[in-house]
From TrEMBL:
It holds the Pfam family AstE_AspA_cat. PROSITE patterns: PEPTIDASE_M14. The lineage of its organism: Bacteria, Pseudomonadati, Pseudomonadota, Gammaproteobacteria, Alteromonadales. Its cofactor is Zn(2+). GO terms for molecular function: hydrolase activity, acting on ester bonds; metallocarboxypeptidase activity; zinc ion binding. Residues 28-304 form the Peptidase M14 domain. Keywords: Hydrolase, Metal-binding, Zinc. This is DUF2817 domain-containing protein. GO terms for biological process: proteolysis. Belongs to the peptidase M14 family. It comes from the Bacteria. The active site is at 272 (proton donor/acceptor).
Length: 305
């Protein structure tokens, strides 16, 4: 059971006043400029960065950026990599950037890579799950979305008019999920949210409607060479969901309006790294994300083309 959150009254959903109060409690803890934007000029020459929008809270500070091939080859498949849907999940952002800077060129003659490394830059700076309007982008990938971050990313990908064969969405599960974000969700919506045992280790969330278990297995096999895989809890679940395979659970991506459900890609997964584990560190978490991306691309190239 969640505890009382310091904003709002128990049993009453937040009004705009409570959402404004929540927003005013947030503070800048790191800079999108230094940790994301300043890295984009160093992309390999076969890639470019392009702006697909900007957050209305500060359009100069928060341009929304994508990494794409300079000369996409229409004969090659497309694959989508997304990070930072939840801004507080650091290794997703930095893993996407590390892959783009140091590994993507090796695939440039095999696949057209589309990388959105930091979908929620305000969330990244304030280390938040939500956007500035107290909306979770990762439940909001619809054309009528209240999340500017999710709506802008969805519109950009749709405007490309291509159908990716693979989409990997990079996330983390942190201790603050129980200490901050689920209690905040409970208070905002006046709906009790159960907390769960935070899994110690890496795991994947497949699309329960088309899990492609061999694809998930290939990623787990690659990542376990880098970091440890999460075990099930004492109920045989991970974050309340039953195990499909070691370190793999499933969600209905489209029904939940998740980022990983925004295309019709055959191979879909969401990574979840646990950065608070005593068995890992920031670099290891980034390395795990990179290993997952490479394994996902390799598998999709082998089986999907």
């Amino acid at each position: 059971m969640t505890t009382h959150y310091p904003i709002g009254r128990p049993g009453i959903p937040w009004s705009d006043d409570e959402k404004k109060q929540w927003f005013e409690m947030q503070s800048i803890k790191r800079t999108y400029q230094d940790e994301v934007l300043h890295k984009l000029p160093f992309l390999p020459s076969v890639f470019k960065s392009e702006q697909y929008g900007a957050l209305p809270i500060d359009t100069e500070r928060y341009p929304l950026m994508a990494i794409t091939p300079v000369n996409p080859d229409p004969a090659l498949p497309y694959m989508l990599i997304t990070g930072g849907v939840h801004g507080y999940e650091t290794s997703g952002v930095q893993g996407a950037l590390d892959f783009a800077l140091n590994h993507a060129q090796a695939y440039s003659h095999l696949v057209n890579l589309i990388i959105l490394p930091c979908i929620s830059p305000w969330g990244y700076e304030t280390i938040n799950r939500w956007g500035a309007n107290a909306v979770d982008p990762n439940r909001s990938f619809t054309a009528e979305s209240d999340s500017f971050e999710a709506k802008a990313a969805l519109q950009y990908v749709k405007a490309l008019s291509v159908e990716p064969i693979m989409h990997i969405d990079l996330h983390e599960t942190t201790d603050t999920d129980n200490s901050e974000f689920r209690p905040a969700l409970s208070a905002r919506d006046a709906v009790e949210q159960a907390v769960w045992q935070i899994p110690d280790g890496f795991y994947l969330v497949a699309d329960s409607q088309a899990p492609e278990i061999d694809f998930q297995k290939a990623i787990i096999k690659a990542v376990e060479q880098v970091t440890h895989i999460a075990d099930a809890d004492d109920k045989g679940n991970i974050i309340g969901a039953p195990i499909l395979y070691q370190g793999v659970i499933g969600y209905d991506k489209k029904a939940l309006n998740l980022c990983a459900g925004m295309t019709n890609a055959r191979f879909v997964t969401t990574t979840e790294v646990y950065p608070d584990s005593p068995r890992t560190d920031a670099k290891n978490c980034i390395d795990a994300q990179v290993a997952a991306i490479k394994a996902a691309v390799d598998f999709a190239l082998e089986r999907g083309v």
